[in-house]
Specification:
Elements lengths: L9 H14 L7 E3 L7 E2 L7 E9 L3 H8 L5 H14 L4 E11 L4 H17 L4 E8 L9 E12 L14 E6 L8 H10 L15 H5 L7 H10 L5 E4 L4 H5 L8 E5 L8 H10 L3 H7 L4 E7 L1 H11 L3 E8 L3 E4 L1
Parallel strand pairs: 4-5, 9-12
Antiparallel strand pairs: 1-2, 3-6, 4-6, 7-10, 7-11, 8-10, 9-11
């Protein structure tokens, strides 16, 4: 008996590392040593008073949709997005990214597609993939199953941190549209697909593409939009990534005590996927806004003058509400 007969193929693992190296050959000057060593070496000598900003996240049960239809090149983008979007809300530049892949049996063809997505996401985030871990775990996972976790680290000068502390009554809430569900709410979505006997291959009104394609639309990475604002020196007081818990749970995370966010839902163009879900589940509006992003993937808070500048710079942004005095939370109007 050897390790391979026990279900772990070391040679295949090394071959996978070579695949990753070829796809990540370009790296910025501050990465001193990357994939293949025991760890990655990162220099931050170019910063005066640096603060590291870190986040870890996964893709959740969206992976089961990808595995059901054998499409694996988008979930890597989701993985990067979930970590990077959490980091940039503090005004931090994405510095580097690491991944963790666990599987029952290492399928090089599938994993190459996953890595292609991760690399594409890192390119969009201008954030190098500098390392990771691939764990082949027979008996723990079925052979055709894998799970992903990502680790994003950003950096910001201490005096440039965006933390929401200066948010005040009368400030404007600005939304940047999402691409769809992103990577949250999939346990509920999969449950109702199963319970109602829906087909992933079918196009259901008001959708204009097969259900699986809509569900696997990658999570948007908002770094380039935030970067433009940071470089333009627009004064943004707070930024919230709208993930699990929707606007209802995520916006309060950046609000000072004594302030709440009043969201005018009529200002938000609702992507068809949310209409599709709402009509079939009959969930109250408040529950929809606490489960899904409802068409807004990132929220910015600024005063009225700065909000007008933001809208003129980014074009796609929408004013979706305002900050008012009261018990900290969110009111959906």
């Amino acid at each position: 008996m050897d390790y391979r007969s026990a279900g772990v193929d070391i040679d295949k693992g090394l071959a996978f590392v070579d695949i990753i190296k070829k796809k990540t050959s370009n790296r910025p000057f501050y990465v001193l040593d990357g994939i293949g060593g025991f760890a990655s070496l990162i220099s931050i000598s170019q910063y005066k008073d640096p603060v590291l900003v870190s986040s870890t996240d996964g893709v959740g049960t969206k992976l089961l949709i990808a595995q059901a239809v054998n499409i694996h090149n988008t979930v890597g983008i989701d993985l990067v997005a979930m970590g990077v979007n959490d980091v940039i809300v503090y005004g931090a530049k994405p510095l580097f990214f690491l991944d963790y892949i666990a599987c029952g049996k290492l399928n090089l063809e599938v994993m190459e597609k996953v890595i292609e997505g991760i690399v594409a996401g890192c390119n969009e985030a201008e954030c190098p993939l500098v390392g990771g871990e691939t764990a082949e775990m027979p008996d723990f996972y079925p052979e055709d199953r894998y799970d992903l976790a990502g680790f994003a680290v950003g950096i910001v000068e201490k005096d440039s941190i965006i933390d929401g502390k200066k948010i005040e009554d009368g400030d404007v809430i600005i939304g940047i549209p999402s691409s769809g569900l992103h990577s949250n709410g999939f346990s509920l979505v999969r449950r109702f697909i199963r319970d109602k006997g829906l087909s992933l291959d079918r196009i259901y009104p008001p959708l204009d593409k097969p259900l699986y394609e809509e569900l696997l639309t990658p999570t948007r990475i908002y770094w380039r939009q935030i970067k433009i604002l940071l470089e333009s020196e627009v004064k943004v007081k707070g930024i919230a990534h709208i993930t699990g818990g929707g606007m209802v749970d995520n916006i309060p995370r950046i609000l000072p005590e004594g302030l709440y966010a009043h969201i005018d839902s009529k200002t938000i163009p609702l992507p068809p996927i949310f209409t599709f879900i709402s009509e079939r589940l009959k969930l109250p509006k408040e529950e929809m806004y606490r489960t899904f992003n409802m068409g807004i993937g990132m929220v910015l808070i600024a005063d009225r003058k700065e909000a007008d500048k933001i809208n003129s710079i980014l074009k796609e942004t929408i004013i979706i509400g305002k900050i008012e005095s009261g018990k900290r939370g969110v009111v959906i109007g």
